[in-house]
Give the backbone structure.
Amino acid sequence: MNKQDQPLIFELSNPGRIGYSLPDLDVPEVNIDDVIPSDYLRVEEPELPEVSELDIMRHYTALSKRNHGVDSGFYPLGSCTMKYNPKINENVARYNGFAHIHPLQDESTVQGALELMYDLQEHLKEITGMDEVTLQPAAGAHGEWTGLMMIRAYHEANYDTARTKVIVPDSAHGTNPASATVAGFETITVKSGEDGLVDLEDLRRVVGPDTAALMLTNPNTLGLFEENILEMTEIIHSAGGKVYYDGANLNAVLSKARPGDMGFDVVHLNLHKTFTGPHGGGGPGSGPVGVKADLIPFLPKPVLVKTEEGYHFEYNRPQSIGRVKPYYGNFGINVRAYTYIRSMGPDGLKAVTENAVINANYMMRRLAPYFDLPYDKHCKHEFVLSGRRQKKLGVRTLDIAKRLLDFGYHPPTIYFPLNVEECMMIEPTETESKETLDAFIEAMIQIAKETEENPEIVQEAPHTTIVSRLDETLAARKPVLRFQKQ
């Protein structure tokens, strides 16, 4: 029996109980062997539980309560912008004209959907300061790869094939070097200075005629705005390279600053982060990519265009890198993002950034006395703490994360970025109230005090969850993915 909840459905099984009812068969019965080859049939019938419909409903309802999401609790996962998904987005995404269409329909029958996609591209161009946008990429890392492939195609078109290296800061998202590698580039690391920003002298040292691009997140993963961004982009452009903007942290600068105005040539956006699409297990991602004018010929095809006759897809793009996703992107997420942008308007999007920054700085200052603050300066949408002083008392950052589960919170991102010892990266987003922030802060303060007074409570956490502390190594190497009857 588990710590809480009713027994699992297998434990409720009782011979003869039925959890479903079907209408009488109104078609001729057939021999199953005539329909399905015997090689594909089970040798033995599976041992399934025999339970009532009520037991089934309670079983799955109980399982649903074990999940944690933005609709059920605070989710301060740094660098992921796990903010509330407005339900108006869901309503609009379910309109028949959006939900019940098919990508193979004739373009004349889906003009409304194409107009939404085109209009979304126009809004994203304005928000980012780019000249054109594609909605094809399926998520952020896919957008990174798409942008890098366009940069590669650009250099090849200019017979500049010696540019084989992509520069990535040591605080970058892990997907950045991975995407560069998959796109066929070699990754070169540029160091951060003591202020947490890119070291300009080290950047000048690593840049050269073999530089294809610099990949940069701004604000960076420490939650700090790169103060020398214009100088950085100029260094790369002077060397003949392109500058790529990882838009995972766009929530920090929305309607306040635009990547295109900072000198970036390519930007990807996470619509499932900044623009409130369901995130993670709640739904697919969407990673549109924006480019400056000289990269437009290399956009994935087909390209959505507007003519006097209406909206249609243009396939005649000889320099295109080709299609990067079946059909035209994750349309449902695009509908949600479009609804959010139109609902918020320019003033609302500006307020998003202002409140996200205020919330992060409020939490950072309140928690600074209890944890180490590696960078004691104004942050943007997120901030990092270090559990170094707790580690000296025998409590790791992992223990703190586990203990937060007992308070009903999803832990923040831990041990990332790698350049901060015992790192905790916390992003409250703009959608949380001061009361929620205060409650989380008090939980963190209590954990800090427990570390000093009774560290075993933290070291052995969690205490109230369905599953107790796991052996992470064993769970990763030998996961148990199905129920095993005792």
Q: What stands out?
A: The CA atoms of residues 190 and 206 lie 7 Å apart. The chain has a mean pLDDT of 94.
